[in-house]
Specification:
Blueprint (H helix, E strand, L loop, with lengths): L6 E5 L11 E8 L2 H8 L9 E4 L5 E2 L4 E8 L4 E6 L3 E7 L4 H10 L24 E2 L2 E2 L4 E8 L5 E5 H4 L16 E11 L9 H9 L7 H15 L7 E5 L5 E2 L1 H10 L5 E3 L5 E3 L1 H7 L6 E2 L2 E3 L6 E4 L5 H19 L8 E2 L1
Helix pairs in contact: 4-5
The structure holds uridine-diphosphate-2(N-acetylglucosaminyl) butyric acid.
Uridine-diphosphate-2(N-acetylglucosaminyl) butyric acid binds next to β13 and α7.
């Protein structure tokens, strides 16, 4: 095993989409399972706390990490089966998510088009059950493979075992840090039907005068909306939505809707109502405002941005101030969406 697999004091500035400054005391890139096995046999392995890093696009680094950061870069994309009603495709956890979506579309396998241009890696996608424009990854998920970092065994998680929820899965909760996801498989439907229910997407397709869109046309429309509304992490540091959209019961919603006509609502299958956190934040006057070097994006109040030179503490200070405003104005607690380290 090459000894330099394990690096010391590695800067993380370029490895998180917020561009936050921090160092990892220990760091290893994982390109193959053999490298991971070799790492697990090192004497340092048992004693160091670990953190698994994908694209770093849903992460707030609040300072240096003294433990071992495992940077997953496992590559590979393939069709592994063709069934009567679906194509099953599989990708290495380190593959770029958007490139993977484009690859499926180029092969004529629809199903992931609503999730175009989401930053991050394939391996990170199921962790927070990425979703956009009416579709969540859970709806196309077949299974994932992971290495149990406690036993070294390769394990497979199917849909039920992954316990998907809104921006949530078992990998964000009980299983956090225990499993290193190495590959994810997706079921892409042959009898595909476009998902165009999301208001912004329906509007964009109408503007483009597309009545029966192809998957590629949906991807193009989604990309255009995202480019308009969301900052490009390559230019302005951010992690997409910084808060989850809060869920409230019908009585709470009725009370709020009386006071705030026009409050956006999304009725959930279980009868609860999802509110738009961006609307609440904008209503509190935060849209486009800064607190030190951290700010609220001017085109989408749910996105916090690095105006230049911000660190994780600056970002969390802004987040806490926003949470306090929303709590005072609406009596609603906003929950952070990214992982805070
Ligand atoms: N709104 C405002 N002001 C704002 C932002 C939004 O009034 O500054 C209102 C909009 O007018 C609309 C509603 O809030 O009525 C919803 O806005 P939008 O369609 O932009 O979506 P969102 O709820 O803010 C969610 C996801 C995004 C995803 C979009 C599209 C979460 C936490 N965020 O945002 O996901 O791209 O829907 O599906 O669920 C991410 O998770 O990082 C992410 C970007």
């Amino acid at each position: 095993m090459p000894v330099d697999l394990l690096q010391r004091n590695v800067p993380l500035h370029g490895l998180n989409s917020f561009g936050l400054p921090a160092h990892a005391g220990w760091f290893a890139s994982i390109d193959t399972l053999a490298q991971l096995t070799a790492l697990m046999n090192l004497p340092e392995w048992a004693s160091l706390p670990r953190f698994i890093l994908g694209g770093g696009s849903n992460l707030v680094l609040t300072g240096d990490f003294a433990g071992l950061m495992l940077h997953v870069r496992i590559a590979g994309r393939e069709q592994i089966a063709e069934e009567m009603d679906a194509w099953i495709v599989r990708a290495g956890a380190g593959e770029n998510w958007h490139d993977f979506v484009c690859w499926t579309l180029a092969h004529g396998w629809p199903g992931l088009e609503n999730l175009a241009l989401i930053p991050g890696t394939v391996g990170a996608a199921p962790v927070q059950n990425i979703g956009a424009y009416g579709l969540e990854i859970a709806e196309r998920f077949e299974y994932l493979e992971a290495v149990d970092l406690e036993t070294g065994k390769i394990v497979r998680f199917d849909h039920a075992a992954s316990q998907f929820g809104y921006r949530d899965s078992v990998f964000k909760r009980e299983a956090a840090g225990r499993y290193l996801i190495t590959a994810v498989a997706f079921r892409l439907p042959k009898r595909w039907r476009p998902v165009t229910c999301y208001a912004d997407l329906a509007q964009e397709l109408e503007t483009r005068q597309i009545a029966s869109p192809t998957a590629r046309q949906i991807a193009d429309a989604v990309m255009a909306i995202r480019l308009r509304k969301l900052p490009d992490p390559a230019r302005i540091g951010n992690v997409g939505s910084f808060f989850k959209n809060p869920l409230v019961d019908a009585a709470t919603f009725a009370h709020l809707a009386d006071r705030y006509p026009g409050l956006p609502r999304y009725l959930q299958p279980n009868g609860t109502i999802k509110l738009a956190a961006g609307w609440l934040i904008e209503r509190c006057g935060w849209k486009g405002r800064n607190l030190g070097p951290a700010g609220v994006y001017e085109h989408q109040a749910l996105v916090l941005v690095n105006r230049g030179g911000a660190n994780g503490v600056d970002v969390l200070r802004l987040a806490r101030a926003i949470q306090a405003s929303v709590q005072t104005e609406f009596g609603i607690e906003l929950e952070l969406e990214p992982v805070v380290l």
